[in-house]
Every structure is written in C-alpha cells, then in structure tokens.
Design a protein that fits this description.
Strand content: 25-35%
InterPro entries: Ig-like_fold
Distance between the termini: 51 Å
Number of helices: 10
Shape: globular
Number of domains: 3
Largest sheet: 7 strands, mixed
Organism: Burkholderia aenigmatica
Strand order of the largest sheet: 24-19-18-35-34-29-30
Protein name: Cell wall surface anchor family protein
Structural class: alpha+beta
C-alpha cells in the first residue's frame, strides 16, 4: 500500500534506507539537524493490517517533534527537516485497536531525500530490544531508563535487527524474506504476503516484568516455558541466546494468508447477519450451520452486545490469536463498538473460532463448548481508604497490585442450570486445580472461587462467602509498603513468575452437579497474554489508570460520608485515562458485603467519553436463608460491619483487564476485601 513489496532487502547499518538512490544516504553526525530542503521519511504503519489514519509523531534527540497522519492504507510521509538525529517515530491508532507502534532511526536522510521508515509490530519489537525494560515508549518518555542520545546508534540498531532475524529465521524463509531482513527500511505492501504476512503472525505481549515477541503459529510440542519459547524484548537478548521460532509448512502459511484475507472482509459481511438477529439467509456462509459458542447456537444470544442497535463494525480489524497446526482452525478476535465515539473499537472484542471449509472458504463455527466458560487475564490496583486490620491476616489494610486469571463459569440457568461446582486446572493454578462454587452474594449469576478449597469433589449445599472469580497469582506494592496475602483459595501461596508458564494458555474445566456427578471436562483457551502484578503497577505509576471522583470516595467510601447508610442507587463519576494511556474504560462495578457474608453487586458498561454512571440495586436476594431487598450495604452500622468496593474496569488493546478497586471497610470485623 503505497510501496511495492521488495523481494531483495536493503542492507543498511543505520536502520533506514534512502529511497530513489542506489545506496544509503549519508546521514549527518549524531545530534545534528537533517538538511532543510524537505528531508522526509515515509513508509507503512501496520500491525499486519494497515493502521488507517494513524497519527505519526517524530521526536528527535532534543525533544523537538513533527507530526503527520497516515492514509487509509497506512502509508505516510513526514517532513523531518529541522529534526536532529536520532529520532523516534510513534504511530497511534485513532480507533483504539492497536497499541502505539514505534520505530527508532539512528540517522536521518539528507536534504531533498526521502528514506523508508516503516512503523510496525516488528519495528516496535526492534526498538524494545534496545531498552532494559522492553518498553519502546521509553524513547519518548521523560525519566525513562534510556534515551535516544545514549542508546540509538547505527551499531545498536544493527545488532537488534540481527537478534530479531535470528529468532524469526524459519518464518522469514516461510514467507519468502531474506535472512537479513530489515523491517524498518524495506518497503512493503500491507497485503498479507511477504513482510506483511510475517507481521500477521506476530504479536508483542507485555506481561509486566517481561515483554515478549510471540508468534501465533503453532508452538513446538516440547516448548516448556514462555521464556524458552518467545523472544524476550530487552537489551539482554542477542543473536547467540535467543530461541528460534519453529519451522512452519508452506501449506500452513498458505492457509493463514487465506485466513487473513477472510478476516479483512469479515466485519462487512457479519454486520448484516447480526442485524438480522444472527440467523437466516443474511448469515448463510457467514455463520456455520453447526455454530455453538459457550452453549449458545445463536451468536447474538451468546453476546447480546451484537444485537444492539448501537453496534458498530465499521473500521474493525479482526486479528488472529492462535491457530491449529494446519492453519485451518483459528481463535480470532473481532473488535466492535457500541458507540460512534473515537476509540470505541478499542473497548470490546468478540473472541470466537473460525474454520476453513472443504471448499476453501471460512466461516464462524464457535468454540463448540456446551457451557458458558471462559478465562481472561486481569491486573488490579486495590486501594484501601481505611487502615483497619484484615480479618484474615490481622494486618492493617494496605494498597497493593495483583494479577492473575479470571475464571468464568457463568449463566447458571438454561444449559448451565445443573452446574453446582467446577474444578479448573491449568497454567498458574494449583496443581490440584481450583474449586469454584455458588456464592452467597446476590447479583452475579456465576460460580465464585471457594475461599476454603475442598480436598475432594463437594456434594450438597457447599457455598462460598466471596463473589470473586479472580485468582491472584502475583502481587506487588509500592516501595516501603509490606503486604502479605491471606491464606485463601483466591490467592496463590507464593508469587508466580509468569515467565515459567507455558506458551499455550489452555485450561481444563471439570463441571459437577449438586450430587458431585461429573457433567464433563472441557478445554478453554485464554485469548489474552499472561500478566504479573508489575504490569498494573507500571500502568498506575505512568498515570494510565482512570481516577475515581473524590466526591464518591468522600460520600460513599467513608463511614462518615453522606452516603454511608444503606443505598439503593449510587452515581459514580471518574476521570478517564489520559490520551497516551493504553487503557480504555469499559465498565463500573459496585459491590458490598457484610460480616454475615450477605451482599450485592452491580455492573454497568461505560460508553466512550462517559465520565459518570448510576448503578441501581434492584430485585431481591437471600441473606441467612431469608429473602431481602438488594442494596449497597451500609458502612456506618456498628452492629453489622461491611465493605464497599467501587471498581473502575478498563482493558488494553490486547484484551487484558485492568481494574481499579477503591475500597472501604467499616471496621476490623468487616470481611477482608483483598
């Protein structure tokens, strides 16, 4: 798109190649400005698909900037006259679907010349290889551990390129690229062949302490850990110590190219089907006749967002998460919007399974699971507005970060009416699995993790006082703060190093009825990358989280606040994340629970740009065997200690959930809220 796909790479030492010349341009000395006569860089912004209308900002070694906008095909040209080398290019996606992409250039073209400088997933990985923390945005962040001046040189860029090519050697062969491929300086067309096919097969996954360049092609059966399987993106990786992506057959590559072309047309073909209610002639050839997703045989029944009149798929860029060995079945993500506001497509993603039919076409088949089961990755900051001793540990409440997996066994009605318990095993969970059961807290029609884990399949009336399905496998605090997790089923006994987890995030759900009979065992794939607690900590310290309104804290999360008594509704206002944040707010959850383990929670979605929502406690629940009207329980009742949590929910473009929990416990007798 805008450039031909070059079969022969341009060999450069500086990280850029000068177009229209036989060789490389002679860039000026480090720190000197480029020529004044319309020196420019141009290229393609792509994460596999072109990033339409991306904003590209160049920041030079002195902090001076220049900005332009890419076209609908991701092609851009930026005048860099007056900028001093080295520079960093950052491309942002106005739709919110793609995280910022980065390119660093050690040298700039001379006046009157134009140099190729693509900004893609691969160039972002290359920039990350120059940093100690794997964060390519360091080059445009004040106070970061590296700067353009002390890091980006012709030699360092060349070494990082060699590291990248070593890791990708087998994929370079598979897509027809040179073993010395330069992702920055080699012009390409975003048409899912050649360099673009390579980009389609890769994703960058920040997990906290480590960031990886992962491949979406099948992993080696012998692969044991992420650390031993994927390229770690930091300056300790060299050509001599990196793993190598397994070889991929030509047939698999061909099928995956076919898949990418299909994904490009899917949103436009899917929209009429969804408008028609997910069935009928409008869905012929789109939804397979044997479609089933988590027990639902209609896609709009599975995800009711898809039946909304506000649903928008225009501009959606579906992406590959993982495929089978042959590339004929794939887990994909389809971004969608429920608002016309800019950035809406970054809020929601439909994960589903597609298959290649015998005729070579593709359709949506679903995961074929008979029950509503899912796994996702979550990172949370839990901020306490009190300092009472935790009932479980005896230690005062302190604020902390944690991360882990959210295990969902939902829709305990319809096909799931017979589910009473579940045992879930898989990466990061206890070796004996984790037991989930029904909760005593009203408002959530799903199983919760049992605080006290049974040693054998439970039978009879076994419930838990918690209403969380969030397993915490890692935690962290700000400097000088000490935190010890309680002994509880929702907490790992020791902090987990997610680098030791396997590359495949497959979990086994064994479901039981009330008498302990097995209903079945099912494999569920987490479409998100793993995360540790430092992922949330880094985002918080960078100011990326939303901020709860002070008025909500003062009135609702305080024993002396105006709303400290029992409430049937509460209005929650907040400040959205800043424009440079990778997070998009998706919802608000308010929950409360008392010392009798009775409580209520309510969750509402948040449209882009919205900064205030009202949550209402309606209906009835059960408390100590009696029917009660649902409410947000009081935190000023001395005879019934309770906690309240206001949770602001966000996600990044990789689908990882980021939660901010603002919490208040009314006394040391209130249930722990860790």
């Amino acid at each position: 798109m805008g450039h031909g796909n070059l079969a022969k790479p341009i060999v450069v030492a500086t990280g850029i190649a000068v177009a229209m010349l036989a060789g490389c341009g002679g860039g000026s000395d480090s720190g000197a400005p480029s020529g004044s006569q319309n020196a420019a860089v141009s290229g393609t912004v792509a994460g596999g698909n072109p990033v339409a209308n991306a904003t590209i900002t160049a920041t030079d070694v002195n902090g001076k900037t220049a900005t332009t906008q890419a076209g609908s095909n991701g092609a851009y040209t930026l005048n860099v006259a007056g900028l001093s080398q080295p520079i960093a290019l950052v491309a942002t996606d106005p739709s919110g679907q793609v995280s910022p992409l980065v390119t660093v250039l050690a040298q700039l073209p001379a006046g009157g010349q134009t140099a190729v400088a693509n900004v893609t997933t691969l160039t972002t990985a290359l920039a990350a290889l120059l940093t100690p923390d794997g964060n390519p945005m360091d080059f445009v962040t004040s106070g970061a551990p590296v700067t353009l001046a002390n890091t980006v040189t012709a030699a360092s860029v060349s070494n990082a390129t060699s590291t990248l090519d070593t890791y990708l050697a087998n994929l370079l062969v598979a897509v027809g690229l040179s073993a010395t491929y330069d992702p920055v300086a080699t012009a390409f067309t975003a048409d899912h062949t050649g360099a673009d096919a390579l980009i389609d097969l890769l994703r960058i996954i920040p997990q906290g302490a480590a960031t990886y360049l992962a491949y979406k092609t099948p992993t080696d059966s012998a692969a044991s850990t992420q650390q031993a399987t994927y390229l770690t993106l930091n300056d300790t990786s060299t050509p001599s110590n990196v793993p190598i992506v397994p070889a991929v057959s030509a047939g698999t590559i061909s099928n995956l190219v076919s898949l990418q072309n299909y994904l490009g047309t899917l949103p436009a073909s899917l929209q009429p089907c969804l408008v028609a209610g997910g069935s009928g002639s409008a869905c012929a050839g789109i939804i397979d006749a044997n479609y089933k997703e988590n027990g639902f045989t209609n896609i709009t029944a599975y995800n009711t967002d898809l039946a909304s009149s506000a649903l928008g798929l225009g501009g959606s860029v579906p992406f590959l998460v993982a495929s089978n060995q042959a590339g004929t079945t794939a887990l994909i993500g389809i971004p969608y919007a429920l608002s016309s506001a800019q950035g809406s497509l970054g809020q929601h993603t439909l994960y589903t399974t597609v298959q290649q039919t015998p005729s070579g076409t593709w359709d949506v088949i679903g995961n074929q699971l008979p029950y509503n089961l899912s796994v996702s990755t979550r990172a949370t900051y839990r901020h306490f507005n009190d300092s009472f001793a935790d009932v479980s540990t005896g230690n005062p409440d302190v604020s902390f970060f944690d991360a882990g997996a959210t295990l969902n066994v939902g829709s305990l009605s319809g096909s799931g009416a017979n589910i009473s318990y579940a045992n879930v095993s898989g990466p990061g969970l206890p070796s004996s699995g984790l037991w989930l059961t029904k909760s005593t807290v009203a408002g959530d029609n799903a199983l919760a993790i049992a605080v006290k884990q049974p040693t054998s399949p439970p039978t009879g009336a076994f419930t838990t006082g918690t209403n969380t399905n969030e397993y915490r496998w890692d935690w962290a605090t700000q400097s000088g703060v000490s935190f010890t997790p309680p002994v509880s089923g929702i907490w790992s006994k020791t902090r987990l190093n997610v680098a030791t987890l396997p590359p495949n995030a497959d979990y086994q759900f064994t479901l039981y009825n009330a008498s302990g009979g097995v209903l079945g065992t099912y494999k569920v794939t987490n479409p998100n990358a793993f995360a540790d607690a430092t992922l949330a900590q880094a985002a918080f310290n960078s100011g990326y989280f939303p901020v709860l309104g002070n008025d909500v804290v003062a009135s609702f999360l305080s024993g002396s606040g105006a709303l400290a008594g029992t409430q049937t509704a509460v209005t929650v206002d907040f400040t959205l994340p800043p424009s440079n944040s990778p997070l998009t707010v998706t919802g608000v959850n308010v929950q409360s629970q008392d010392q009798n383990l009775c409580g209520f929670q309510q969750v509402v979605g948040v449209a882009p740009g919205t900064t205030s929502v009202t949550l209402t406690a309606s209906g009835t629940g059960t408390c100590k065997g009696s029917t009660v009207n649902n409410s947000f329980l009081a935190v000023n009742n001395a005879s019934d200690a309770a906690y309240r949590i206001v949770q602001l929910r966000s996600r990044n473009s990789s689908g990882i959930l980021f939660y901010l929990n603002e919490t208040y416990r009314s006394s040391a007798s209130a249930p722990g809220a860790t």
